[in-house]
Amino acid sequence: MNLKKIVITGGPATGKTSVIQGLEYGGHLCFHEIIRGLTNEAKESGDLGSLDTNPIDSVTNPLEFNRTLLEGRTVQFLKSQKVEGQLVFFDRGIPDVLAYMHYYGQTLKPEFIEAAELHKYDKVFLLPMWKEIFSADKERFESYADALKIEDSLRKAYSEFGYEITDVPFDSIENRIRFILKIASN
């Protein structure tokens, strides 16, 4: 069986990180979300204009921030091609960058579209918004209503690049992981 690149995506606070951690704990190679690290760097450098909104929207130079994010996700993708195994998981993929840019009304430069076209994943799982587990924190800035709109942007971005999106049902982390592994392994 060839290596499959699997994206776990969804709006903020849908359980992605918990699922990725569970997959990793189960022995699967996982590439973690990188925006939190970039957000912390922007805070430390004083480049974050507001602590009340997503850094994609509030850094001094959003285009450069998104380029850095795109580069990080592209590096993850390229690293995944060098691993052995059957499945590799990503906490968000390259189209996520485009979805958030779209949500915040930012212009997509050709380099973003080209990266999404050149680096294709094998499967995309979306964890839908789940009001009962939604919570904001110091690095999650969106309201539940905003998060639903982000989910719509994510669906649109992945669909525009030809992906079939599989919704992960509301359930325990363990059952969500079982669901993902069953479908990803086929």
Structure summary, number of beta strands? 5
Radius of gyration from CA coordinates: 16 Å
Distance between the termini: 10 Å
- Tally of separate helices: 8
* Sheet with most strands: strand arrangement: 2-3-1-4-5
- Please give the share of residues in helix: 40-55%
Q: What is the level-2 CATH architecture name? A: 3-Layer(aba) Sandwich
- Can you tell me the CATH topology? Rossmann fold
Secondary-structure blueprint:
Layout: E1 4-10, H1 16-25, E2 29-31, H2 35-45, H3 55-58, H4 62-80, E3 87-91, H5 94-103, H6 110-118, E4 123-127, H7 144-160, E5 165-167, H8 173-184
Parallel strand pairs: 1-3, 1-4, 2-3, 4-5
Describe what this molecule looks like in 3D.
With 186 residues, this protein is α/β, with parallel strands linked by helices. It starts with a strand and ends with a helix. It is globular and about 40 Å long. It has a single domain (4-184), classed as P-loop containing nucleotide triphosphate hydrolases (Rossmann fold), CATH 3.40.50.300. 49% of the residues lie in helices and 12% in strands. The protein has a five-stranded parallel β-sheet with strand order 2-3-1-4-5, sandwiched between helices. The mean pLDDT is 87. β4 (123-127), α7 and β5 form a beta-alpha-beta unit. α5 (94-103) packs across α7. The chain has helices at residues 16-25, 35-45, 55-58, 62-80, 94-103, 110-118, 144-160, 173-184, and strands at 4-10, 29-31, 87-91, 123-127, 165-167.
